[in-house]
Amino acid sequence: MARNPYIVLGLSPKATDAEIRSAFRQLAKKYHPDRNPDDKKSEDKFKEVSAAFDILGDSERRKKYDRGEIDDDGRERPNPFHQWTQRDGAGGGRGYSSGAGGPGGGPGAGASFDDISDIFSDIFGARQARAHSAQQGRGRDTRYRLEVDFLDAVNGAKKRVTMPDGKTLDLTIPAGFEDGQTLRLKGQGERGPGGAGDVYVEVKVKPHALFDRKGDDIYIETPITLKEAVLGGKITAPTIAGDVSVNVPKNSSSGTVLRLKGRGAPKKSGGAGDQYVKLKIVLPEGGDKELEEFVKKWKGADLKARRDFAGA
């Protein structure tokens, strides 16, 4: 028979949500099966702690428990004031059924196995999955969140991470990995009589100071001087694989976009996307006396683009 969940977690009924989460975190780590292999008592204690948190970790279920609407197992108690509806019984007799499924809560009552969100949020946003595996007796799957650098996601990388239960896992980030995609590590989840569950790692890609990704293409903005814009020439531009030489055509305006074929992110089907370099003319910081004198004397050509813009 289940014990009072407050007693299981070592708390009083006045405990805050933060205190409940903290107590569960400490006890779950202490009694986790991976830290106590082949220890039946620790395994039972871990299940008891998890069941207690299933009730107290959910604000609505905790309120129901405090009001006496559910018992220590999380099952609904019979409610004498519940509205009962009349129905026909077998053989023409009369029977009654409750909207709550009758005493004991009916099918589906009992402990909830919804996600315990962010229970290990202090360790790269990990989330402990609470859903039972469809395979009976199989250990529970575990879900985590992991942040990786932009270039590691685009170019691929190997990462060694330590999970909340102390287990170390080696992750391979495939080249071209996108923000929000999930890695699956088969058989690395919680162990059970029918085998181990899986680990799912949702990858969050950090933004980059220079590169912006859209699908398989990479975009950057590159500053050029007025001289380079007028006369053209070669400049060095960064790509996800390193710096490359780029030819700037003569008379390039700000906003001109140059395409670097095959310099984008790797594609799943093979090959790679492109990189697009947007030129931005930048004048000398603090001004340039020689340039100012030249512009004052320069008659310049009529700017047709602005006349069209103004509707002339």
Automatic annotation (TrEMBL):
The lineage of its organism: Bacteria, Pseudomonadati, Pseudomonadota, Alphaproteobacteria, Parvularculales. Coiled coil: none annotated. Residues 89-109 have a biased composition (Gly residues). This is DnaJ C-terminal domain-containing protein. Pfam families: DnaJ (PF00226), DnaJ_C (PF01556). Residues 4-69 form the J domain. Keywords: Chaperone. Residues 27-47, 60-112 are annotated as: Disordered. InterPro entries: DnaJ_C, DnaJ_domain, DnaJ_domain_CS, HSP40/DnaJ_pept-bd, J_dom_sf. Residues 31-47, 60-79 have a biased composition (Basic and acidic residues). PROSITE patterns: DNAJ_1, DNAJ_2.
